[in-house]
Structure formats: C-alpha cells, structure tokens
Amino acid sequence: MGAPGRILSNDYKGHGYFRVPTGQNQIEVRMPTNGRLYEGSVYLASGEPQYLLFFRTTCGGLWFIFDHIRGPVSAIADLFTNDPPVGDSHTYKVGPLEMKEGDLVATSIGIISEGNAFLDFGVNDELGRLPRPQHPNAYGRHLNAVCFFTFFDSETAAYLQAKVHADSVHEAELCPPE
Question: What's the pTM?
Fold first, then answer.
C-alpha cells in the first residue's frame, strides 16, 4: 500500500494505492460512499484498458478517484464509447451516473496479463477543510489531495497506515501516522 502524498522521483502523487498479491486482479471494487461519476478516461497500459474514474460525493467539495480499474461494471463501461488511446489518460465528462455506498464499481483491477494487481485511490477536498499538500512538487488536482485515512474509523486507519510499504516516500505532514 502507498500513502497519499507520494513522491516518485520528482513527480508528486496526491493519491495512494492498494496492492493485492500478484495475480489476484479479480477483485470487487465497491463505492466507499454515495457519489456521482462525472468524469473519467479509458487508456491503454501494457496493452490493456485502464479506467480512471472521478466521483463527486454528496458532501460539497469532496471528490475521489479510482484509477487502474480493469473491469468496470457495464453501467460504467457503457459511458466510455471511444476506443482507448495509447498512452493518453486525459479525462472528459461522462454520465452523470449516481451510485450508492456499497455499489459494485468493478470486478478486476490493474494489469491482468502481468498479474500486477493494484488500484489507485485518492480523496480531494476543494474547500480546504483538511490538510492539503505543502510539498513544492504538488501540482494540479494533487493540490487538493487529502489523507484518505481520515475517512476511516481509528482502528481501520491505523491498520491501513501499518500496511504502507516501508520504502514508500510520501509527504508525512499530509498523512501523519496515528
């Protein structure tokens, strides 16, 4: 697992990621809360389509992303009518598609042919109610990134933080340990 506010070389990633064992790409991804799919893209990575999905929550100013969705449910896949361009993950408006907490979003993640089973996840707060990135390399949508551990009960948040990969370089002020 990687915490939000990751720093990869000089690139800043406001979102974190979840990784499961190699080859376990067939996994259910469910809505963490009520939300509306409003934007996204489908692009190719290692020759496989990857879906990047943006959801707005019912709490004003909060939105979240899932990236590296491999097998979205048909209600989502049907919103993306163009063939995925190679190497292009520019987003565009889709939907809106209303979804409820617990609804199934996808049945597979990552790059199946490689067994690379991972899912990017991030939460953003446009109203600045929670700590946001201060790192000089933060840019664009990453400037509104917040620590998604904040949205879990303390026991779950502590469990997830304990699973952060030891070599993960991230902005500690954005997501301080419990």
Answer: 0.90
